[in-house]
């Protein structure tokens, strides 16, 4: 993976020193809260319900075991023994003391990490497919483009005061695991007419109060012109994006107002200027970055290539294999999902001990590498098939072998009103109770792939618009209520869920989800997944069953 | 029946972000039990003035008045404030003493 050079390290170290000074001045009274607030936000430090919250960037979701141990140490030393992996491949700590924040940033800098670009109206931490570099069918490793974009966008002076925050995601597989069409810019690496990698650029997607699936703005952009095209896109947004109304300031509103064709034309005009400005990356620099993402030396031992693997007579292991392991591009290897969704647990939370255990397992079984998914799970990307059973046995001992990846209990949930200052309702308890209702693993496997996503407010950090079943918490006269949406998808077939009908109380929403699942089981055709069934029959049969008893 | 006027002042402590409540002496306590209760709008204004002085003295940030529904326990009326008072409902092990 990418390693900082002296310039990168100096930049991050300087930023830590700068923030240390700013915090000291705030504590002494030399800086008012009004002046300090934007400075702390630029370093990922929010003030939430209970304390300061620090959001740490995990660029394109890739971590070394050493970095994971530092995240665990921070949880232990400065927080309350846990962290929360978010829906944008970041980690958040909920109980941070302002006076200790500079020390935390220094600890992060020591392992080439930071909290830059995790807040504010800037280009945020770039996300990518969590199977990057190992997905069987990907065109190329999307982290190369993501790292180039990260370096281009960090402290970019022209794009430091955008109308609103700006999120970019990159994927390189026909199967989209990065939700690229729900980003301000989504980049899909495809093959051009000659079979060379090129970029399909989607612009203007997003969730929040006005959800949009991003339209394709540029097809098969030549790889060498990525930065000039991004520059042109950001310039059009910076110039015309609305600054008068926070709710209409995202680029999706501009793209919708102009229409995708007109927006694309304006970007194209601007691009004719930017592509002359030597913004594009020199080929030798691209090669330097690419070298960091070269595939590791995989073993080709016969045991790994054999069809048989140890342990497959154990049904529990087979269940885990079927949901939590995935095809790898190297023969004899698998990608493993470590579910952070134990039954009744808090989605995305990991304790100090769990983070340290995953780091140890990554060293033993995955060449020291870990990924963080936007679905709030962890990935071991390089596991020898002959060692899967040994890994599973160790995960089981650590309570981390839940065989539910992609199933009904693999729920995305934002922190909600339990932690977040913006939330209107709690998300986590709803996720916990749905998880408990569907605890039976046989039932989960029989239901099949089903993505439930829960947000505690319209800002949609829990991606409810893109849930097969989406749940949105609202405040109705001081009571928590939950709207249910059906038919959303954050994958390559992206779609926005539609509201089923009147909302449910906190008690009623779990029953409602179960009614929806039972309705699906009754009406599905053989082998038909939940989302396909909803698309075939529409919301009608679900509404009928759901509201018949009301 | 008109609702009885009863408010307390809450804020986050600057140094560590902890949730705190204003006492009648102008100090900040972590428990609502010690909080001063404003029974009239004038009381509320007086307490908010005290809180503003604390902001200036770099002791707290974001002070605001919140409704309390039960005078003896000073229990906040809104769920959001009850969660701030006690801690996340999903982590009872981290609950604060009221």
How does the SSE layout of this entry go?
The complex is a heterodimer of chains A (550) and B (98).
Chain A: H1 6-28, H2 33-41, E1 45-47, E2 52-56, E3 62-64, H3 65-78, E4 82-85, E5 91-96, H4 101-109, E6 127-128, H5 142-153, E7 168-171, E8 185-191, E9 197-203, E10 216-222, H6 226-240, H7 251-258, H8 260-274, H9 283-292, H10 302-305, H11 315-324, E11 325-327, E12 333-338, E13 349-351, H12 352-365, E14 369-372, E15 378-384, H13 388-397, E16 412-413, H14 428-437, H15 441-447, E17 452-455, E18 469-476, E19 479-486, E20 498-499, E21 504-505, H16 506-523, H17 530-537, H18 540-547
Parallel strand pairs in A: 6-7, 7-8, 16-17, 17-18
Antiparallel strand pairs in A: 1-2, 2-5, 3-14, 4-5, 4-13, 8-9, 9-10, 11-12, 12-15, 14-15, 18-19, 19-20, 19-21
Chain B: E1 7-13, E2 19-22, E3 28-29, H1 41-56, E4 60-70, E5 75-76, H2 79-86
Description:
The complex is a heterodimer of chains A (550) and B (98). Chain A is built from 18 helices and 21 strands. Chain A has four domains: 6-109, Sulfite Reductase Hemoprotein, domain 2 (Alpha-Beta Complex), CATH 3.90.480.20; 134-291, Sulfite Reductase Hemoprotein, domain 1; 302-397, Sulfite Reductase Hemoprotein, domain 2; 412-547, Sulfite Reductase Hemoprotein, domain 1, CATH 3.30.413.10. The model of chain A has no long low-confidence stretch (mean pLDDT 96). Chain A has helices at residues 6-28, 33-41, 65-78, 101-109, 142-153, 226-240, 251-258, 260-274, 283-292, 302-305, 315-324, 352-365, 388-397, 428-437, 441-447, 506-523, 530-537, 540-547; strands spanning 45-47, 52-56, 62-64, 82-85, 91-96, 127-128, 168-171, 185-191, 197-203, 216-222, 325-327, 333-338, 349-351, 369-372, 378-384, 412-413, 452-455, 469-476, 479-486, 498-499, 504-505. Chain A is an alpha+beta fold. The relative contact order of chain A is 0.09. The termini of chain B are far apart. Chain B has 98 residues and is α+β, with helices and mostly antiparallel strands. Chain B has a five-stranded antiparallel β-sheet with strand order 3-2-1-4-5. Chain B has helices at residues 41-56, 79-86, and strands at residues 7-13, 19-22, 28-29, 60-70, 75-76. In chain B, a hairpin with a 5-residue loop joins strand 2 (19-22) and strand 3. Chain B is globular. Chain B is built from two helices and five strands. The A-B interface holds A 26-29, 33, 47-52, 80, 94, 96-99, 346, 417-419, 426, 428-429, 432, 478, 480 and B 12, 14-19, 55, 57-58, 61-62, 77-80, 83-84, 87-91, 94.
């Amino acid at each position: 993976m990418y390693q900082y050079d002296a310039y990168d390290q100096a930049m991050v170290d300087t930023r830590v020193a700068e923030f240390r000074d700013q915090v000291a001045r705030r504590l002494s009274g030399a800086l008012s809260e009004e002046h300090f607030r934007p400075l702390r936000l630029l370093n990922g430090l929010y003030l939430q319900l209970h304390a300061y919250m620090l959001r740490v960037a995990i660029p394109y979701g890739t971590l070394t075991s050493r970095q994971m141990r530092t995240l665990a140490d921070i949880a232990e030393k400065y927080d309350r023994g846990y962290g929360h992996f978010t829906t944008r491949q970041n980690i958040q700590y909920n109980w941070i003391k302002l006076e200790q924040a500079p020390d935390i940033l220094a600890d992060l800098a020591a392992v080439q990490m930071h909290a830059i670009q995790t807040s504010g109206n800037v280009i945020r931490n770039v996300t990518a497919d969590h199977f990057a570099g190992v997905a069987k069918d990907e065109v190329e490793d999307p982290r190369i483009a993501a790292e180039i974009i990260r370096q281009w966008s960090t402290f970019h002076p022209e794009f430091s005061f955008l109308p609103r925050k700006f999120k970019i995601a990159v994927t390189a597989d026909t199967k989209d695991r990065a939700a690229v069409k729900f980003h301000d810019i989504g980049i899909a690496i495809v093959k051009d007419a000659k079979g060379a990698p090129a970029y399909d650029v989607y612009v203007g997607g997003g969730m929040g109060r006005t959800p949009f699936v991003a339209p394709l703005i540029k097809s098969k952009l030549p790889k060498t012109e990525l930065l000039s095209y991004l520059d042109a896109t950001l310039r059009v947004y910076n110039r015309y994006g609305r600054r008068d109304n926070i709710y209409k300031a995202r680029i999706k509103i501009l793209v919708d107002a102009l229409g995708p064709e007109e927006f694309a034309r304006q970007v194209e005009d601007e691009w004719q200027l930017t592509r002359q400005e030597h913004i594009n990356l020199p080929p030798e620099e691209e090669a330097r970055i690419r070298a960091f993402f070269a595939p590791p030396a995989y073993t080709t031992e016969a045991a790994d290539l054999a069809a048989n693997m140890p342990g497959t007579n154990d049904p529990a292991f087979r269940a885990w294999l079927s949901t939590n392991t995935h095809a790898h591009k190297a023969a004899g290897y698998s990608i493993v999902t470590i579910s952070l969704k134990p039954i009744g647990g808090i989605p995305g939370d990991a304790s100090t001990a769990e983070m340290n255990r995953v780091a140890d397992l990554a060293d033993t079984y995955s060449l020291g590498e870990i990924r963080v998914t936007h679905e709030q799970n962890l990935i071991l990307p390089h596991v020898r098939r002959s060692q899967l059973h040994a890994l599973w046995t160790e995960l089981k001992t650590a309570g981390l072998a839940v065989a539910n990846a992609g199933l009904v209990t693999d729920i995305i949930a934002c922190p909600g009103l339990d932690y977040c200052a913006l939330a209107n309702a709690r998300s986590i308890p709803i996720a916990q109770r749905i998880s408990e209702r569907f605890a039976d693993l046989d039932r989960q496997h029989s239901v099949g792939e089903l993505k439930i996503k829960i947000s505690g407010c319209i800002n949609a950090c829990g991606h409810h618009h893109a849930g097969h079943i989406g749940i949105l918490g609202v405040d109705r006269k001081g009571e928590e209520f939950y709207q249910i949406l059906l038919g959303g998808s954050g994958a390559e077939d992206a779609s926005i869920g539609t509201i089923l009908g009147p909302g449910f109380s906190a008690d009623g929403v779990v029953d409602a989800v179960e009614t929806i699942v039972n309705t699906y089981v009754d009406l599905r055709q053989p082998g038909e997944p939940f989302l396909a069934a909803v698309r075939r029959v529409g919301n009608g049969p679900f509404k009928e069953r759901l509201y018949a008893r009301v | 029946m008109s609702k009885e006027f009863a408010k307390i002042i809450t804020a986050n402590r600057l140094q560590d972000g902890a949730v705190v409540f204003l006492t009648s002496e102008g100090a900040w306590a972590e428990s609502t039990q010690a909080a001063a209760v404003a029974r009239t709008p004038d009381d509320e204004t007086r307490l908010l003035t005290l809180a503003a002085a604390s902001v200036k003295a770099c002791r707290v940030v974001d002070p605001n008045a919140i409704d309390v529904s039960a005078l003896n326990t000073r229990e906040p009326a809104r769920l959001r404030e009850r969660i701030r008072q006690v801690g996340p409902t999903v982590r009872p092990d981290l609950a604060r003493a009221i």
